[in-house]
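Supplementary Methods S3. Input chains for the assembly prediction are listed below.
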Amino acid sequence: MNKKRLRRRRGKIENATGGKPVWVGLVGGEYKPLAEADLAQIYETALAVLAEIGLAEPIPALLEVVVPRGCVLGENGRLCFPRPLVEAAIAHSPKQIIYHAPNPANDQVLDGSTMLFGTSGEGVTILDYTTRRYRPSTLPDLYDAGRLVDQLEHIHTFGQPFIASEYSHDLLTHDINVAYAELAATAKPFHMGLGTAAHVDRIIELFDLFAGGEGAFVKRPFCSFGGCPIVSPLTFARDSLEVMMRCAELGITYDVAVAAQAGATAPAALAGCLVQTFAETLACLTITYLINPQAPMLFGMWPFISDLRTGAFTGGGAEQTLVMAATAQLCAHYGLVSSVASGMTDANIPDGQAGFEKGISTVVAALAGGNSISPYPGAVGSLMGSSLEALLIDNEMMGMVLRVLRGIEVDETTLSFEVIRETVTGPGHYLGNPQTIALMKSEFLYPTLADRRDTSTWEEAGSPTIYERAHRRVRTMLHDYYPSYISPELDREIRARFDIRLPREIMQRGNGRW
Amino acid sequence: MVPIKQRSGRRGGGREARLALRREAASKRPVFAGLLGGQYKPLAQRDLEKIHRAALEILHTIGIADATEEVVAVATRAGAFVDDNGRLCFPPALIEDIVAGAARSYTIYSRNPKYADVVVGGRHVNYATSGEAVTMLDLKSRTFRPSTLQDLYNCGRLVDTLDNIHQFGQTVIPTDLHDLRVHDLNVAYVAVTATEKPCEMTFQQAKNVREAVALFDRVLGGEGRFVKRPFVSFGGCPIVSPLKFGADNLELLVETSKLGLVSDIAIAPQAGATAPAALAGTLAQVTAEGLACLAIVNMIRPGCPMTFAIWPFVSDLRTGAFSGGSGEEALMMAACAQIGRFYDLPTSVAASMSDSKLPDAQAGFEKGITAVTAGLAGANRVLESAGMVGSLMGCSLEGLVIDNDMLGVAQRVVAGLEVNDETLSLDVIREVALGPGHYLGHPQTLARMETDFLYPDLADRSAPGVWEAEGSPDMLQRARERVQELLATHYPDHIDPKLDAAIRARFPIVLPREVMGRKK
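Predicted structure tokens for the full assembly:
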């Protein structure tokens, strides 16, 4: 209730100042996939899993911190978490996470009463529009995706949509260059995946140069790191665990994504899959809390679904949508700031299938009350690849979802009794009514890429699909838009101290790429 | 699979057998007709009450214009009054009584136990086609051409094969039929020949209803049978917004109610044009309009079922054009489903009305978002839900088969999660974590494989490399192939040749036998 009131108030303020049909600061919760009793059962069972079964392969550095605080190392080598510890971690989990942006004007506050859309994925390929084939994704692709996201209204944060595969053999070069490309491309809060704890400090050195000196980044961390410290079922993944622990020590946001697959690495029963991923993510939360009670961890329990006929991950099915909606509700119920995934279509190209799989999963995740939602804008092929055209199409879809999320304001004014009386006894239509004109821009969202023309106008324009229109738009946007967030002097300094592989020439107009 | 041939007239075992079959079918697939929705509540309880009070005030103090003499006579006898402007006004207490005494649900029957009856009421959710578009999308040329009777028949036989569409409603108007009686009776004929699923159609003339009912009786094997087990619902739009009756469809409403049949109406004002631009105001107005129709039906025949079908449409205020694929539309239809639940009346809403001209990614997300929110809000029948493109201007056969997959996903979401000791899986987790380390061959996995997971029909789940090797086809290409295959092979045989000859002898049927896969 409180949350709703807060949202309304926020909405009114925003509306009074901006008069926009959608805004940041909307949140769901009107859709409740689970009954309260179901939530409690999932919670109780997850706590039992942590206390009785525990997690395998804890690393010594972890044991040093958590065993003295009450975690129990079993004879079978599994680390168990007693109930009071987990409950303390939940109680102390941050109720607010600030997503700083390179430009402070773009900072975003994430809490129980907000929802943000971001990209994400760390895919490995790009779908080529012309050949309809996938090719390995590269550093310039990442820079291009960042430049697009920087221009797209409904994407609030830029998470690394794919890797720079040409550097996948040299992870330090890879990670440094991902950090640089994202910083160069966007002024929105951004995010990168990281699998090596030793790289954290090196990347922070780079960010400190931008932020204005040593220690500046940690005060306003405009990039969050993320990964998956768990190998399901219930086993620690050493490298990512170390990254998570380092972030906790530094007190910077760690974006955890625990992605067990129902039927493969989690139970096929969807409730059981929720139980296990909840337990696994709570283990991460408890560890973070024990290392540094102030450290913010975004609660990313991401139960994934496999197609049980083949064992392959299938992100576009309804079961995926349902379990993700359930996690959003679960987190909201227990006061955890959630990270939720949607939009993970199995279609290999942005077609009708991609459209409905992304649309359904995203609206449902948002209405269930997810906080940081990654609708995987741009991602296709069960997260294997990305399409720049899809990024634009999905931005349109997310606008629509935001409008649904905003809901309908019902009060004396909006109920319009006098407007109805006037119209019915007068002109008989509302077309020129002052209310209509006043609400035109604030009550209704107009798409920029979705087609609303009549059929004959569309035919005259050559009957284009949204994919075709998006392609033309991508070319224009990438041809024209080269932000200069890093000054030339700073750029020289960064390049002098770090092995930057993104050529200067492709970071300005007229480079022939677009 | 049950062969499609099973004849409808034979009802050995009757209701029991049908229920058993349905249970059997339902126990295998995770989705089916009549799933329970209502988990999504776009409006707060106090907002619903505000809308209700505003609607009552509109009906009492503004009223509805242009009631026919017959309706004025019936309504004033029941307690309504005509004000100084000649508008028919309804006191709040009268409306409250009408709502209290109205039918809570109705059933549109299937003619074959293999398909579920569509139960309209409570929290049940069913998805249906409809739309009455006037053009068909020609995919090859990417242009629209006028729709024909044969197009309607083709839509029907496709729907006959599509599991996630529970009712075949009239997708297109046969623009090749100009005589209104011929038009209405041929649409009725398509309804009985193309599918045995429950149907929906629209009459151009109220006077043709009785003749169509005679045709339906003939199919069911005797006079008076259709009224007992109606397998087709019909109605029009008795309101011309804002707050006026439309004479023709009001007459149809009266006629249908006199016969004791369901009035399957739709009231579709456009926000910003024929309803306020403020969404809440549109809801207040359309609720008033819906309650006025409910009052008329119940005054003519108390307890006669009417679909509380309030369908506020959203227009793009820059152009005035209808925009069915917008977020505002998704929201409004979900709110209307909830208003219907507030009154506990059988509802329908419209969803999946994309503004895209062809089944592309835009159509996909617009349809998906509107269809799933309508179902989650507990709409009893979600109409327009498959095949429609171009803001209801056109229909696409490819769209029908694509939307069938989309509706499967929407329904699986509505079906929800099962939480109990068995599904919480504590013992299974323990066993696997301490044992093999994966769940792949676990008995639970095998047991849940068919019951908990829905496998798509046309949607692609192949790996990128496999997909490329197949020539990188998109959903539309796969749909085109599927449509060609189905239309070349699926000629339903729901009406035997003798009955067909009898129908053709009595009614002006113009659908050639050849297009039905039969000899001349």
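Residues 279-300 of chain B form the longest helix (22 residues). Residues 141 and 358 of chain B are 12 Å apart (CA to CA).
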